């Protein structure tokens, strides 16, 4: 093999890395374009899916005047003669005469003609069996439309369907909703040097990403089965191509760990070329995590699939997850682009020249401040374990104490609310 250096005119310069904010926008757009079509599903099956249409009421909430307490629906001044009972689920006859009352249960429909509801614990009986007491000035029932009017939009399309949303939809009278399904994801772990059990030693390190990345993906709303996690994959090009082809048969997104550079055993780029992939993003001007990538493939069925190449260093891999995978998955699910909250730096954070610096921070939610954590090397996970997210220090700047900066939150558990 010749050792001569190719003439400068024959070399192909690598494209410059994408800016971090540009990369986020680009991957979100391709994800949204590839979002699966909406489907109708029963409420019991939509947990974790995303509303494809706004959630609107099919009736006013409540649909009729509803007693807030157990007691007596009365008409006029007391004491009142008892003329019946109203339980939840029935339609009462009107109270036609002053001085009459019906016993009423919480949640029951208040009869027409009632002027007040008297709480049972604030009532008494007269010797002749009538009901006495003084109703409170404020009405003890919920008026129709108090929570929502008929046809009102309660939640926009793109809202994640969690238990609270499902319950609200049921209360509005829905049996099914139009939703987008959860994306399917798989993980391929690259690297012959990795151990999958026991402590590291003898030149081999423990795989920290195989056990953790699927959990991060689930927090972003993906479906990841144990069988979808494969590796370590042998450090050969045929093994990489075969593993990618198998994973892409079912998954919308395949994440890989390691192999994103061009070293002697880095086969991801040649494997993507062999599969006919095109790059959405190939390297991002961010530190740590620079050699991340996202590629797109179109299957024989015409469906778009994606491969997210995460760097092998653990913290760099998580930076790639929050930078590329999170906005991609938001697009695939038909959700809005993840908005970045902000916090005030409690201490200085250095910049990284022309690169965006994502710096691990712990948040004081009461004070609204972000505190840098220790042990933040790209190969370290100790700092990540005590952090809430990454402070964004934009290119060409440094973060000074008191500066207000964006923060990329780490993904939450299902049902948790953003800070």
UniProtKB/TrEMBL annotation:
It is an enzyme of class 2 (transferase). Residues 1-13 have a biased composition (Low complexity). Keywords: Magnesium, Metal-binding, Molybdenum, Molybdenum cofactor biosynthesis, Transferase. Signal peptide: none annotated. Residues 1-20, 121-143 are annotated as: Disordered. This is Molybdopterin molybdenumtransferase. Its cofactor is Mg(2+). Its EC number is 2.10.1.1. Pfam families: MoCF_biosynth, MoeA_C, MoeA_N. Catalyzes the insertion of molybdate into adenylated molybdopterin with the concomitant release of AMP. Pathway: Cofactor biosynthesis; molybdopterin biosynthesis. It comes from the Bacteria. The keyword Hydrolase does not apply. The keyword Metal-binding applies. Residues 186-331 form the MoaB/Mog domain. Belongs to the MoeA family. It catalyses: adenylyl-molybdopterin + molybdate = Mo-molybdopterin + AMP + H(+).
């Amino acid at each position: 093999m010749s050792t001569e250096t190719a003439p400068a005119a024959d070399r192909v310069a690598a494209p410059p890395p994408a800016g971090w904010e540009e990369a986020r926008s680009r991957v979100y757009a391709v994800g949204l374009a590839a979002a699966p079509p909406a489907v109708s599903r029963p409420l019991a099956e939509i947990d974790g899916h995303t509303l494809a249409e706004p959630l609107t009421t099919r009736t006013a909430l409540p649909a009729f005047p509803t007693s807030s307490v157990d007691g007596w629906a009365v008409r006029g001044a007391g004491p009142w003669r008892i003329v019946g009972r109203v339980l939840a689920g029935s339609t009462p006859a009107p109270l036609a005469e002053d001085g009459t009352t019906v016993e009423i249960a919480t949640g029951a429909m208040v009869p027409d003609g009632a002027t007040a509801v008297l709480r049972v614990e604030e009532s008494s009986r007269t010797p002749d069996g009538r009901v006495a007491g003084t109703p409170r000035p404020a009405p003890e029932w919920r008026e129709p439309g108090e929570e929502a009017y008929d046809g009102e939009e309660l939640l926009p399309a793109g809202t994640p369907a969690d238990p609270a949303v499902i319950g609200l939809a049921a209360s509005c009278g829905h049996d099914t909703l139009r939703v987008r399904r959860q994306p399917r994801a798989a993980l391929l772990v690259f690297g012959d040097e990795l151990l999958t059990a026991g402590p590291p030693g003898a030149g081999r390190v423990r795989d920290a990403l195989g056990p953790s990345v699927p959990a991060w993906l689930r927090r972003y709303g993906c479906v990841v089965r144990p069988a979808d996690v494969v590796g370590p994959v042998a450090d050969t090009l045929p093994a990489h191509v075969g593993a990618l082809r198998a994973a892409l048969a079912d998954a919308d997104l395949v994440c890989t760990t390691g192999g994103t550079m061009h070293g002697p055993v880095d086969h991801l780029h040649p494997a993507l070329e062999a599969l006919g992939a095109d790059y959405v993003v190939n390297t991002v001007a961010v530190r740590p995590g620079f050699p991340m990538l996202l590629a797109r493939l179109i299957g024989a069925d015409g469906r778009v699939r994606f491969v997210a190449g995460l760097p092998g260093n653990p913290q760099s891999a998580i930076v790639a997850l929050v930078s590329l995978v999170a906005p991609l998955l938001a697009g695939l699910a038909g959700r809005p682009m993840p908005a970045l909250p902000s916090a005030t730096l409690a201490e200085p954070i250095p910049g990284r020249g022309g690169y965006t610096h994502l710096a691990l921070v712990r948040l004081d939610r009461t004070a609204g401040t972000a505190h840098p954590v220790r042990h933040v090397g790209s190969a370290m996970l100790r700092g990540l374990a005590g952090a809430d997210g990454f402070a964004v220090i934009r290119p060409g700047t440094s973060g000074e104490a008191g500066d207000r900066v964006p923060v990329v939150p780490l993904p939450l558990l299902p049902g948790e609310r953003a800070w």
